[in-house]
Amino acid sequence: MPEGLRFIHETLMRMADGIGGHEHRYGDDPSQSLIVYPAARPNGPVLLFLHGGGWTNGYKEEMAFLAPPFNAAGVTLVSAGYRLAPRHVFPSNFNDVADAVAMAWRLAEVHGHNRDALFVGGHSAGGHLASLLATRDDWQAPRGLPGNVIRGCLPISGSYDFTPGAGSSVRPRFLGPPGLFNEVAASPIFQLSDRAAPFLIAHGSDDLPHLKVQSEKFALVARAKGVPVEALEVDGVNHATILLTAADPDKPWLAAAVAWMRTRLDGH
User: Fold this and answer.
1) The domain containing residue 241 runs over which residues?
2) Which helix (H) or strand (E) holds 200?
3) CB count, 10 Å around CB of 77?
4) How many domains in the chain?
5) Cis peptide, bond prior to residue 86, ω within 30 of zero
6) What Gene3D superfamilies does the annotation carry (predicted)?
7) Which residues contact 22 (CB under 8 A, 6 or more apart)?
8) Which residues of the chain are modeled with pLDDT < 50?
9) How large is the C-alpha radius of gyration of the chain?
10) How many CB atoms lie within 10 A of CB 161?
11) Is the bond leading into 91 cis (omega within 30 degrees of zero)?
């Protein structure tokens, strides 16, 4: 694990210490699992959140720190893992998170949450995968899910375009061998249609420059296709600290996320 990611991992794990949930496996690989953190009254929104880590690192347990503030706001949190590169390349990670959505939907029978109130989100690589879930419409039916199973998407500092010229200095290893097909298929901006789920897109004011540009471009294209999009720039945070402050009630993302999900469920 690179030193920067190690620092974030260790910080997140300290923040997650003592927060327990209910673990379920959706595949044979150790990464193919999720943890449900139910709200006391599980009839509110359900947020399936995906960790970051450059598609090569990260653990679902890192996201436990989000559970207490979301649970207090009546939101059930589901933190899902997925197989990592370079051992597993695209579309393995996408298929995994689609399977995780299917399990979270079916676990409503176990934990009592509202399966019709399911949102997806994530940070960095997780924000990318969540956005791909919300823009593609070819994965729901094979898993026995309704086409509108995703009520909305909340990516934080996500990537939306992997084609040449999109600003990344290196080609992410999860894309596998060079080839434009995977670069387009893995890019949420090229999967957009008027059937995509609504978005609340967030990035930091000091975020990676190419991700800020991609966020703004994705929002423009989505709106042009009739997809409801709200954008939030969090002042004074960068690509890492926007996640570390995501549970902070004094920062705008937490309150905005809860209010936006409730608004989507109210039909406005």
Assistant:
1) 3-266
2) strand 199-204
3) 25
4) 1
5) yes
6) alpha/beta hydrolase
7) 35, 36, 37, 38, 110, 111
8) none
9) 17
10) 24
11) yes
